[in-house]
Amino acid sequence: MVSILQAVDLIVAQSKNFGCQAVSIDDSLNRVLAEDVCVDRDYPPFNRSAMDGYAVVSSDFNIGQAVKLQLTEKLLAGGFSKSKVVSGTCIKIMTGAPVPAGADAVVRLEDTVENNNIVEFVVTTVKVKQNIALQAEDAKSSDLIISKNSILDARAIPVLAVLGKAKVKVFNQPKVAVVSTGNEIVSVESAILPHQIRDSNSYSIKNFLKKYAINDVTAIHIADDKQRLITEIEKLLDNDILILSGGVSKGDADYVPEVLMSLGVKQIFHRVQIKPGAPLWFGVMPNGGVVFGLPGNPVSVQVAVKVFIEPFIRACFGMETIKPLLLSIFTDKKKKTKLDEYFPCKIVIKNNVTGIVSNRMNGSGDIAATLGSDGIALHPSSMDMIHENMILEFYPW
Amino acid sequence: MVSILQAVDLIVAQSKNFGCQAVSIDDSLNRVLAEDVCVDRDYPPFNRSAMDGYAVVSSDFNIGQAVKLQLTEKLLAGGFSKSKVVSGTCIKIMTGAPVPAGADAVVRLEDTVENNNIVEFVVTTVKVKQNIALQAEDAKSSDLIISKNSILDARAIPVLAVLGKAKVKVFNQPKVAVVSTGNEIVSVESAILPHQIRDSNSYSIKNFLKKYAINDVTAIHIADDKQRLITEIEKLLDNDILILSGGVSKGDADYVPEVLMSLGVKQIFHRVQIKPGAPLWFGVMPNGGVVFGLPGNPVSVQVAVKVFIEPFIRACFGMETIKPLLLSIFTDKKKKTKLDEYFPCKIVIKNNVTGIVSNRMNGSGDIAATLGSDGIALHPSSMDMIHENMILEFYPW
What we know:
2 copies of one chain form a homodimer.
Chain A: H1 4-12, E1 20-24, E2 37-38, E3 48-49, E4 53-56, E5 67-74, E6 89-93, E7 105-108, E8 112-115, E9 118-121, E10 132-133, E11 144-146, H2 156-162, E12 167-171, E13 176-181, E14 185-186, E15 197-198, H3 201-209, E16 217-222, H4 226-234, E17 241-245, H5 256-262, E18 266-270, E19 274-275, E20 281-284, E21 290-294, H6 298-316, E22 325-329, E23 333-334, E24 340-350, E25 353-358, E26 375-379, E27 385-386, E28 391-396
Parallel strand pairs in A: 5-6, 13-16, 13-17, 14-15, 17-21, 19-24, 22-25
Antiparallel strand pairs in A: 1-12, 2-11, 3-10, 4-6, 4-7, 5-9, 8-9, 18-20, 20-21, 22-28, 23-27, 24-25, 24-26, 26-28
Helix pairs in contact in A: 1-6, 3-6, 4-5
């Protein structure tokens, strides 16, 4: 039996690079960058007007009285002027347009009155660089802007677009198969007998993986029949990640570890000091892919995916380790075991403090235990009781 | 000019139901439930063993000495027994199996030694209901378990699976079009001139909408040409939501409001007391759909999507209003305007406190301002300075 930290280290040690491919920017959401993205030119590419107004020479102002200037040209965004603004003149300019040569400030439209190509300025004070976004102040040509191994979220993708990255190099997705084992398991479409239960674990796992745009996952069910387990699992040994649920504990029909080992899967560890989910089995397939043998209970599966499988995927993509938030818990909680315990929580606000409360949970078999939760908190092994307002580690889903 | 609260109220007042449809559970991630989901039977459906072990009569124990019982049967999960456990006997049972009649406790395998159908129990104390998940303790038949208007996340979908909801009724997605306006805007694939900039706003908007599984969005670009705007926007008046960026301020080429009104779009408001993004225009199309005219700067667009468009979408789906987190800010910040200001922030941990720091931002045109941020915080209009450790409203993206 290993600790959670040992288990994660042993798992992450098996991480590998899945290679990379170029994808269209339109298909890049939640993919992980396999290249450093650098800036193609300065941003702004020129001194850009930040307002609709007039480009002026600031030294024409600040003389203690209203100023009138000759209007020489009108620019739109997308246009640009070859003229120079000289003292006594101004050029009308729209937000986003390049500030013409000679001008060193923009006075906004609201502070002006234009009449017969004479612009009267209602303000008397004008600062140098006022309302101008200076060339390269946002990003400098060829600087690194998005690092390799970053996930492409809805903030990163628009930056790729600005830089003209119509195609972007991302890591390939792993080939993943999910196997629900157990005689009691039937599919979601099945009529059901009283002693049976429908498969939910494959839905937990598949939908969690979509967080990393891992969308094409094979999912099958195999009964607790040793020969059928061998036959069916053998066909799945070409995967990068094989995730089984059920059949890894000490029960009479828990054939998964012996079946895997008979197929040449090397056991790295079995059992972890965690609740729920202690019977976790982890091994390496002959092809170098990994096998997670998860316990069968629904909460155990969801916790194991978060605590063990997500760090593996992130390591393969070269991503940073997830660091927990530290939040106050607003409920008490007792613990009977000496294990680290994870439990589902919801984020709430109480007396102007953002904290967490635990979900109602009747053990790891409770089908509704994580419903509406925002993540899992850690009840550390060393602590029998959690008291209200203690600070806990919280991992958002 | 309206306040943010007034603007959101006026926007939400135009929300409408898009109708509903049945989708496969496999396609339901991030869709919004259009039906109440009730429990199909008790969970557990029977008194279920929570351990691999032996089903016993607890009154055989607690006599101050080790107990030996006759083993009468072995059950697997997925199996069930018609026999009764009577005093002096036990039935071997696996996690998940129904506890046989007569038994009122399960002793785990680890605490027993089995030999020739005699089971010796190493523990002497056994409590009634020990290691038994009682029928209906997780969920009771016909109780409401997931309410209409809930978003189907990776925790809700497994529950649908357990209940046998292979198809689920969800709200239809709105028909959405996104229009980037501006002569200076070119597409991501285009070669670019110094005074031009590539479209990024359509990428911000489209990828944000994927949060609600709104994946099929029309996106086009139209130059600042009044006649072309009229011709192209007219074709888009059959949408439920039309989102334009650029062309709504006071510039000479800001034709969007007059073009929309010439096409029969009724203005609800123009300009909001917010920074960035004050020039926001909002109206209603002849078909009852809504038009958001956003300013053109990238940060303005991302803030407007979060502050104005997301509440509209959630209202249409009947979802709860988003409540901000309350978090300490670890940076000072000055504000020059009298407006409510939103600024991008990253969640960090400092001295064991979870709080936020502001991203570097050179105004609303800064292409990199939101990169790596976790959401936006509000610098309230009433406050000139934000000081370190003040509690702010924070909206995760």
